[in-house]
Structures are given as structure tokens and as C-alpha cells.
Amino acid sequence: MGDTIPKLMREFVRREPELTVQWSKDSTGTFQPIAWKQLYTEVEAFAAGLLSLGAKRDDHIGIVSENMKEWLWADLAILSIGAADVPRGSDSTAPEIQYILDHAECSVCIVENLAQLEKVLSIKKSLKRLKTLIVLDPEFEKVDGDAVARMAKNAGVKVFMFADVQKQGREWAGKHPGFLEEEIAKGKTEDLATLIYTSGTTGEPKGVMLTHSNYM
Question: Widest CA span of the chain, in angstroms?
Fold first, then answer.
């Protein structure tokens, strides 16, 4: 069995590729199964997309979102390339997000939807390192693209849809076959997996450092 989360994922993909690992509602509200091999395909595409956008090993990548299937895909992709996630719920205030993303030195942040995107854009001037925002919500494509482009330009960041990053990633992966296996193999049990922040009710939030060993 693997000694990191991505190695554990890879083990399950090899042993039980057809086993359902997720259930997710479709547009009609019906739950549809997602097998390990499909999960791996989704993770691979997003991992490649992150690398194509300049993300690298040891980066800290923010996630401001509630639970959804894309959250897990994104998180496993982050860990698979040797980066660490910095998660926060969508009920967090703008000042909380500003402090955490700045303290964690995040250059990339993944947000759930338009509301979270606008929240992060509102504090962008205080986030000098932040260069890229990725929106998980598939419904985001219905938002006024020109308005979002103007907001992003004014804030000095690039905004991508999750699906577009995956599409870009598939193209990138075609030129780098076997990249994900190689990245996963580089992972060590003492590598940082997560920076999870306390509520900050007794002062500034504290970043709790969790390694793959902590999870395993």
C-alpha cells in the first residue's frame, strides 16, 4: 500500500478500476456513479492543467469551496503533483480569505462559484502573489464572460473554468505521457499535504501543517 495519498489512490485504481468511489447528481438530480478509473482520468487532466499553468511541487494552492465532486478531483490533483492544498469553506469572510491566502503564499486559488470568485477578487489588491483563479462550478459558463474578464483584468489575475483547465491539461498530458505516474512516484510520506487554518477566534488564524504521514 502506498505511503502518500496519491500512491494510495493509484493502488485502488490498479486493484479496483471499476469500483464506484463517488456518487454525484446529474442535471436531473439523479445520482450517477464514478469509478476509480474515471476519477483517475479526471485527476490526471486537472493535474496536467495545473502544471501547464505553472503550478509546481511544494506550491500552496487555495481551495475556497464546499464539498462537490470537482473539489475531490482538484484536491487529489494538487497532492499528486507534490503541492499542498489550503482549504477553506465558502462561508469564510473576505478578510479571513485574504489573511489565509496571503499567509500561505498562494499563487493559485480554486473557488466554488461566482460568489467566491467575487469575494477573492474584492481582496486581490492585498494578495500580491495571487495570479490565477479557477472556478469549479459548471454553471459558471452561463455568467457574463465579458464582465468577468473585466473584473479579472482590473484585479490583475487570470480566471479559468475547471473544465477549461482540464481541457488544456489533456492537451499538455498528450505531450508528456506518463507524467502523473512520475509525479506521484516522487512523493514522500513527510511531504506537506495540507495547510488547514484555525478559526482565528483567539487571534490570527494558525496554519496547521499536515503531512501525508499524518493522513495515512
Answer: 49
Residue 181, all three cell numbers: 505516474
Contacts of 92-95 spanning 24+ positions with Cβ under 8 A: 92/64, 94/119, 94/120, 94/122, 94/123, 95/123
Q: What is the pLDDT of residue 157?
A: 92
Q: At what angle do helices 5-15 and 36-52 cross, to 10 degrees?
A: 140
pLDDT digits (tens, 9 = 90+) for 122-163: 999 999 999 999 999 988 877 777 777 788 888 889 999 999
Strand order in the sheet with 84-88: 158-161, 132-135, 108-111, 60-64, 84-88, 192-197, 207-211
CA distances from 59 to 93, 171, 205 (A): 24, 22, 20
Number of Cβ within a 10 Å radius of residue 39 = 21
* pTM exceeds 0.85, yes or no: yes
Q: Is 67 exposed, middle or buried (0-12, 13-18, 19+ CB in 10 A)?
A: exposed
Question: How many C-alpha atoms does 189 have within 13 Å on its Cβ side?
Answer: 8
Q: How far apart are CA 185 and CA 198, in angstroms?
A: 31
* 14 and 33 Cβ atoms separated by less than 8 Å: no
Other Cβ atoms closer than 10 A to 131:
15
What is each CA distance from 205 to 59, 89, 97, in whole angstroms?
Answer: 20, 14, 10
Report residue 2's pLDDT band, with 50, 70 and 90 as the boundaries: confident
